[in-house]
């Protein structure tokens, strides 16, 4: 269970990105953290993953512990990648096997094969191939907490489908997952709950059951909350002319 209570986060340049953020997520829930560019999604996910600390370090508790005390139980899958550029996928697997007690080596090797990844240093791979190494590693860690920051970036349509299949086919249902993405349609049928960040805090926190009951899609909800204006650029041009 993840409990976040009155979370504030300020970057070193004094830019406050999150304030008064509170929510709790029960074990096994899949949560989409959404919002416009710069809303603070990556910041929130990094805080939950323990890669940065909140202004007051007691604001995030995962199973009653700080995120830093949960190292090894959280898998952080991001566009930037957590692999080492000089290692081949299998050498990276060797490293992870030593580091993560729960690392599922046969599953990792199976995913490398499924994604047709060759044995060459990650730095010599394409962006999409690197992303596949990142996903294979992240999923084979078999951690109870999975945090995915833009897992679809740089992936072609088929890879995105393969990824969702591999993900859905792997989960035990016990994993608690946070995912942020701008590819809303990819996650509509995957997540249980949507949290939308706006102006440094939570603008909406709703379960998919409630959203469906309201007869809305995530996309429609986003439009309502973020207030996307159709033809906004032309309106802007009209204004400055
Ligand atoms: N290292 C940093 N130092 C200072 N400010 C930062 C830093 N990283 C991000 N920010 C600022 O914090 C705010 C939130 O950034 P964040 O990356 O969390 O947003 P996001 O919602 O993930 O955006 P996007 O959808 O564009 O990826 C932005 O205004 C950004 O400029």
From TrEMBL:
User: What species was this sequence derived from?
Assistant: Anaerotignum propionicum DSM 1682
This chain's protein is named ABC transporter ATP-binding protein YtrB
Enumerate the spans annotated as ABC transporter domain.
2-224
Q: Name one GO molecular function term.
A: ATP hydrolysis activity
Which PANTHER family is this protein grouped with? Answer: SKFA PEPTIDE EXPORT ATP-BINDING PROTEIN SKFE
Which keywords, in A-to-Z order, does the entry hold?
ATP-binding, Nucleotide-binding
Q: Name one Pfam family in it.
A: ABC_tran
Q: Which InterPro entries match?
A: AAA+_ATPase, ABC_transporter-like_ATP-bd, ABC_transporter-like_CS, P-loop_NTPase
What SUPFAM superfamilies does the record point to? P-loop containing nucleoside triphosphate hydrolases
Claim: 4Fe-4S is one of the keywords in the record? no
Q: Where on the tree of life does the source sit, at the highest rank?
A: Bacteria
């Amino acid at each position: 269970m993840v409990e976040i209570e009155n979370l504030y986060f300020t970057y070193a340049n004094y830019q406050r990105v999150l304030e008064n953020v509170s929510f709790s997520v029960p074990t096994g829930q899949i949560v989409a953290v959404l919002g416009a560019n710069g809303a603070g999604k990556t910041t929130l996910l990094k805080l939950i993953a323990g890669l940065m600390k909140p202004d007051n370090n007691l604001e995030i508790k995962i199973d009653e512990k700080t995120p830093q005390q949960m190292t090894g139980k959280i898998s952080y899958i991001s566009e930037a990648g957590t692999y080492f550029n000089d290692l081949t996928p299998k050498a990276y697997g060797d490293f992870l096997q030593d580091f993560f007690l729960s690392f599922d080596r046969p599953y990792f090797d199976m995913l490398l094969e499924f994604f047709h990844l060759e044995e060459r240093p990650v730095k010599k791979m394409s962006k999409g191939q690197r992303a596949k190494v990142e996903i294979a590693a992240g999923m084979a860690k078999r951690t109870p907490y999975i945090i995915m920051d833009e897992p679809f970036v740089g992936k072609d349509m088929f890879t995105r489908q393969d990824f969702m299949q591999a993900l859905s086919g792997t989960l035990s249902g016990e994993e608690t997952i946070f995912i942020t993405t701008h590819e809303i349609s990819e996650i509509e049928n995957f997540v249980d709950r949507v949290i939308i960040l706006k102006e440094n805090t939570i603008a909406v926190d709703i379960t998919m059951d409630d959203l469906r009951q309201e007869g809305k899609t995530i996309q429609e909800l986003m439009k309502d909350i973020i207030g996307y204006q159709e033809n906004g650029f032309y309106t802007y041009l009209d204004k400055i002319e």
